[in-house]
TrEMBL record:
<protein>
    <submittedName>
        <fullName>PcfB family protein</fullName>
    </submittedName>
</protein>
<dbReference type="Pfam" id="PF12687">
    <property type="entry name" value="DUF3801"/>
</dbReference>
<feature type="compositionally biased region" description="Basic and acidic residues">
    <location>
        <begin position="350"/>
        <end position="359"/>
    </location>
</feature>
<dbReference type="InterPro" id="IPR024234">
    <property type="entry name" value="DUF3801"/>
</dbReference>
<feature type="region of interest" description="Disordered">
    <location>
        <begin position="350"/>
        <end position="387"/>
    </location>
</feature>
Length: 387
């Protein structure tokens, strides 16, 4: 009977387009609603810092677990998690009195988390419902109230989007994102906020239509009314730092791309987003193209996202030795950046390899047809002799 009850308490929750397995505790559906608020809080925090750990954990779906440890060991836990290549996200501290902290991870990483437990005293692996049951009720209530408040977009980013939209009466959001080199998570809240203010209307197939002429939008952006949409003091405070930071970030990305293209010791490469398998705070794990179970880790400081955040732009140092690992991060071999580029990323070499594979395929087909013809001819000869 207990097994049936346990099974009934395990549910799948759809959140941010992903299915998560949750085991309801004694609080039932209240736990589900509150834990989704926790996810939303972490997502909002990571958006501000440019991280995507919890987003990727949610996309993986399935069973998510909690690693609990003493707060004083937080930096050590982060260092070990990065060392073992564990994708994790720091959970809000909902019980500051117990002196413990928690990180969220996928159950697939449990063996590596257990290796960390051997080095971190007073640590253990738990579930989300245990994390929730240990929380202070007022802390949970405070977090839920914070999540309910809509996040105010950055004024300068809104201005950039508005001026870009003013170029056309009807525009695709994806085109604006591409021209401004913004991610979906950055631009979507701005589009929604502008719709609330009556500046535009969202349409079908990802389009937006301005509710006024492009000239009127330009005038609005330059007016006092625009500042009042955000609150004048808030607009001044936020725009002074954030716009400068955004522009500086874009300049760094452009500089890195230019250096990689012009550096004779580096081969510039692009990696499709679909090849990204894991991410930590400082590194990203990608599968090597045309290799079923071969992966490399790249330093985040040496990559930049392009093409609507669908492609990674990076560089392979020709003389550097890269460790090739399998999906479980087991070492397979080492190879130079030059060989790695030539074998897997060089478009000319790939085209030659494709042509060579095509020749082999055609040759095999021809040999197969000849063998079939010879076999058929042999059968006819045998049948003729019998007659």
């Amino acid at each position: 009977m207990s097994e049936i009850q346990d099974a009934a308490q395990i549910i799948k929750v759809s959140f941010e387009g992903a299915e998560i397995i949750l085991k309801m505790g004694n609080t039932g559906w209240q736990f589900v609603k509150d834990i989704c608020a926790v996810f939303k809080k972490v997502l909002d925090q990571e958006k501000l810092s440019g991280k995507t750990s919890v987003q990727k954990l949610l996309k993986m779906g399935g069973d998510l677990q909690v690693f609990r440890f003493e707060t004083k060991d937080l930096e050590r836990v982060k260092a070990l998690a990065n060392k073992y290549g564990i994708l994790y996200s720091i959970l809000p501290d909902l019980n500051e009195k117990d002196g413990m902290s928690e990180i969220l991870f996928h159950s697939q990483a449990a063996p590596r988390i257990q290796s960390m437990m051997a080095k971190i005293e007073h640590s253990n692996i738990g579930t989300l419902d245990e994390y929730y049951e240990n929380a202070e009720p007022d802390k949970v209530e405070q977090l839920v109230e914070e999540v309910k408040k809509p996040a105010l977009p950055e004024p300068k980013e809104c201005e950039l989007v508005a001026r870009e939209l003013a170029k056309n009466q009807v525009e695709k959001i994806s085109n604006v994102r591409s021209r401004l080199n913004m991610t979906w998570l950055q631009i979507w809240p701005i589009i929604c906020y502008m719709e609330e203010q009556g500046i535009l209307e969202k349409g079908k197939e990802g389009t937006v239509t301005l509710t006024r002429t492009p000239e009127q939008v330009e005038e609005l952006v330059d007016s006092q009314q625009w500042k009042q949409l955000f609150g004048e003091e808030e607009a001044k405070r936020r725009s002074t730092g954030s716009s400068q930071e955004t522009e500086e970030k874009m300049q760094v990305i452009r500089r890195i791309q230019k250096e990689k293209r012009n550096n004779p010791g580096v081969n510039a490469i692009t990696i499709d987003q679909k090849l990204v398998y894991e991410e930590t705070e400082h590194h990203i794990k990608t599968r090597i193209p045309y290799r079923k179970n071969e992966f490399i880790w790249l330093d985040k400081s040496e990559i930049s996202w392009i093409n609507d955040h669908k492609t990674i732009f990076a560089g392979l140092e020709k003389k550097k030795e890269y460790a090739i690992l399998d999906l479980e991060d087991r070492f397979l071999r080492k190879t130079s950046g030059e060989d790695l580029y030539r074998e897997s990323y060089d478009p000319v070499h790939r085209e030659r390899a494709r042509q060579e594979q095509e020749k082999i395929r055609r040759r095999r087909e021809q040999n197969y047809r000849k063998a079939q013809q010879n076999l058929e001819a042999g059968r006819r000869t045998i049948q003729g002799q019998r007659r």
